[in-house]
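Ticket reopened. Same input as before:
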Amino acid sequence: VKFGVVRFPGSCDEVDALLAASRVGEAELLWHGDADLRDVDAVIIPGGFSYGDHLRVGAIARFAPLMVEVDRFARNGGLVLGICNGFQVLCEAGLLPGALLPNPSLRFTCRQVSLEVVNASTSWTGACSVGERLSIPAKHTTGRYYASDPVLDEMAANGQVVLRYADGENFNGSARDIAGVSNKAGNVVGLMPHPEHAVDVLTGSADGLKLFESAARVPAA
Amino acid sequence: MRVRVLIRPKAGILDPQGQTVERALPALGFSGVSNVHVGRLVELDVEDASQVPAMCEKLLSNPLIEDYEIQ
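Engineering reply: fixed in the latest deploy. New output:
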């Protein structure tokens, strides 16, 4: 599998994402200003502060030339993972339901969180099992997942709630403890915690690797 | 022409900025303040004001979480 990690002005976790993806396949950086996905099999939109988070988180990044290609790729079933700011970008782009709002504390918070896998049949969680706990760090100011109740009900019915904060771990006030969601088809996933920072027990946990391994298991289209 | 767009968090969505301001005012001796909400103001000069609603829908606001008012 060949991963492409998008670099925007203001990205800051693209190198960790590149290193994490490199553990399970090939990986290269993609530049936001190029309208070329370079034939990658999976796209990762990394964390950071794309375009300085001006106006709203993710609001400007979604108009980057590369995002037009990512949109087309995703709608054709291509694998896309949005991490933290990448999740915010995918929500703004309409590739994932809902939006991310400021933490109730209004503070940047960095902590290891325990996540529960709710759906293990998406392209990015196929190497997990339902109910499995993943220990992954989260670090953000704007991570309160929000969608209206009818949308949340529909997402639950469609299996689009992929990851939940385990009991007592929902520090950012996310609706229904949601930490990660997918589109209906399950090829596009976004989450606030950072699996790319949890790929080696030396730094606390290797649970994050499972998301990258999941993508590597998906047969090439 | 000069256009102002007021953007507010949608009613019913937790607004921690508004809450923080609401809590801070009594500490300064201002009483009787409630329902404080903090939003954004965008001012722009436009040749064709009929385009402003589309600008609001596509970029200036996120209609899932914000309401906008054009003045």
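The mean pLDDT of chain A is 96. Chain A touches chain B through 18 residues (CB under 8 Å). Please confirm and we'll close it.
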